[in-house]
User: Fold this.
Amino acid sequence: MKASLGRNALERGMSLLFLLCGIVAVAFVLFISIYLILSGVPAIREVGFLDFLFGKTWSPSTGAYGILPFLLTSIYGTAGAVVLGVPLGLMTAIFLAKAAPPRLAAVIHTAVELLAGIPSVVYGLVGMIVLVPAIQKTFRLASGATLLAAILVLAVMILPSIIQVAETSLRAVPEEYEQASLALGATELETAFRVSFPAARSGVATAVVLGVGRAIGEAMAIIMVSGNVPNMPGLFQPVRFLTTAIASEMSYAAYGSLWRQSLFSVGLVLFLFIMLINVLLNVLIKGRKEG
Assistant:
């Protein structure tokens, strides 16, 4: 009797603890959202919503605060990294989960873990020393610090998140699904792509979301390889992302100035941009599940 009462009390205590952790997590998100809104909206009002969001010139010295180059660069850079990194990451995850010999899988796992543990500044350093000169020489450019270099660095940086999460999801697919597919005459390759992969769709989508979030939120490595110039995006142009605009200018903007408030507005746009992508992906996943 006493043991039962103690166990029930422990369960209630743990339930309250988990509830508290969930409330704290939600509170942090709400606090960040409210803070960014209060800090970012005044500059948007002063500059003008259309001028701020669709202006092509960012020049604090002349009072021009248009973030369209940053916004388009972030979209193009993230899209390019996803196009290059997601297929490679998913194919690697399928290989590790369904086809790789144990010894080879162990080697690849070690490499992926090392990639995940490398600081972003090291990616940027290697890109600046190796990738940027290679692009400059290959395409005969004045500078190799371009959007292309940023895309390639981001594509490599998102690989560990995609591979690890997608592989875990693929390994969680019940063996009965695969055995039934093989029993019906499907090959192992057909089973992997037509049975295992669709069954792990939710986890794979989570891997993609994490990769997109990593690509959008990266700053340090991108500053070192993108040129950090507020140009309209071009594959062989030096560019500046939303994140790099904040990181490179925040320390120079005076407290209370329109420049500093505009940087908070850039953070608000970045925050809303990430939320929009997460919502769209979740709606897409939910719609496919219901279908």
In short: The longest helix spans residues 2-47. The chain has a mean pLDDT of 88.
